[in-house]
Amino acid sequence: MTRFDDRPFELPGEVAQRFCDAIGAEHVHTDEAARDEYRDPYWHRDDRTYDSSAVLYPASTEEVQAIVRIAGEHGVPLWTSSQGRNNGYGGPSPRVRGTVLVSLRRMNRVLEINHELAYAVVEPGVSWLDLHAELERTGNGDLMISVPDLGWGSIIGNTLDSGVTYLPYGMDYQAPTGMEVVLADGTLLRTGMGAIPDSPSWHVYKRGLGPVLDPLFVQASFGIVTRMGYWLMRRPKAYAPLFLTVPRDEQLAQAIDILRELRLAGIIRGVPVMQNTLTLASHFPEAMGKMQGAEATLPDEVIQEIADETGVGRWGMRTAVWGEPAVVEAHVQAITDAWGAIEGSRVDHARTYSSDDWHEIDHFVDKVQAGIPNLDMLESLPDNVGHIGFSPVVPLVGSKMRELVDLLEETVVEGSGLNFVAGICVISERSAMVVSGLAFDTSDAEVSAKAFATVRTMVERAAELGYGEYRAHLDFMDLAAEQYSFGDHAYRRFVERIKDAVDPEGIFAPGRHGIWPANRRTDG
């Protein structure tokens, strides 16, 4: 039985006017062209299922508070984004059609850079590119940010969706610390030590007195985060980017087990990523062109030929070593020795960079692992090719990884006739996210529909093995949440009680990750 009401919302004209009065009419956009900037580019162009009714652009915490108070008074659902990226997961589109979008792009100030303690404090509109530029401008260029592949996203937005970054502080999401949040009644909350006025410990200690609240605002709908601390890392004396190959698909389990032991030994740190052959096209466009696997399923022998001819392998892993030169040298050798147990494998180590020649880093992967945000990967993405992400979490055990990858690949090939693409993001010493799915032609309605249907099947089949994803696509948030069913959905029922207590009017992001407010639940 359907347990939620996702009927579209219609924004009354008088309420739209109140938003105009609060933040300025020039910052309230209701025309379709302006609203369409806040759609996932991978929706089929004729799919209007997740349209918004307006986009609001506040410039301060006070303006966010004013928007929230108006929304609460009139029961207006709000869906917040920071930069509005999140492509492949639904973008900034709202779950309930007609929801008012709140874009925090104008809140783009770097509020503090603390060089001594190596952290920054940012507003939601600050992108990785923005913070990096500000570090350079202010003479703090020796501080590194743990960044994702594309630097255009928001630091806060990425954090609030559990987005992956790759330097050591990216492991287990160590970098974010201390939040300021606008609550549903328009009041302001500061988490952790920030609850003490003017506390110098706010952004250096991850807990406080009593329950730790920061995680409650990750992938949640309890408030709007308007500032956050982010830990930085000093530029090391030596940095060695590496690329490790797995020549044959049947060697994947062996590679995962070797990787786990290198992680547990502290030899490999950060968030290494292992990708299959077709996914690696974005890393090696000079060898593979703009192929993204959106063609019909390629036979295994053809993929093996591509892997052999390009030298990227059936799986290829990027990682890096940071630290003192002698330690970096020793760890590179330890990785090379361990990986050598995989027959025919390679460990590519072209160069170790010193802190003085950072400006010579030129390949986009090497930049990312050096904390240099960029947009280079966009150049390798062809027009009309989109992807859908399905990302279950799996123990870092070779046999477990092999079982899940085989299941997901079989589901993609059988369900869509397309190619399976996957990246294994090793988020800790004990677990990894299999960021999987398929690439498809977004201009083809039939292919797009089949792609989405296939990924829904992936959600259900992975759950049969006990796996759920860490971050759900908008189109199947409810289905993904349904898999977390222990104790007759005890988790969901508990979170719903929190939702109803802190957001009684249900204005914040109804339906986000399967959590619906009381006024939109239909069966308790």
Q: Would you kindly provide a written description of the structure presented here, covering whatever features stand out?
A:
By secondary structure, this protein is an alpha+beta fold. The protein starts with 12 loop residues before the first helix and ends in a 22-residue tail after the last helix. 49% of the residues are buried. Helix 1 runs antiparallel to helix 3. It contains 14 helices and 20 strands. A hairpin with a 5-residue loop joins strand 8 (176-182) and strand 9 (188-190). The protein is globular. Strands 12, 13, 14, 15, 16, 17, 18, 19 and 20 form a nine-stranded antiparallel β-sheet that branches. Strands 5-6-10-8-9 form a five-stranded antiparallel β-sheet. A four-stranded mixed β-sheet has the order 1-2-4-3. The chain has helices at 13-23, 32-36, 61-74, 128-137, 155-160, 252-264, 285-288, 300-310, 325-339, 364-369, 398-416, 445-464, 477-482, 486-502; strands spanning 28-29, 54-56, 78-81, 100-103, 110-114, 119-122, 143-144, 176-182, 188-190, 224-231, 233-234, 238-246, 273-276, 315-323, 347-348, 353-354, 385-390, 393-395, 420-425, 431-441.
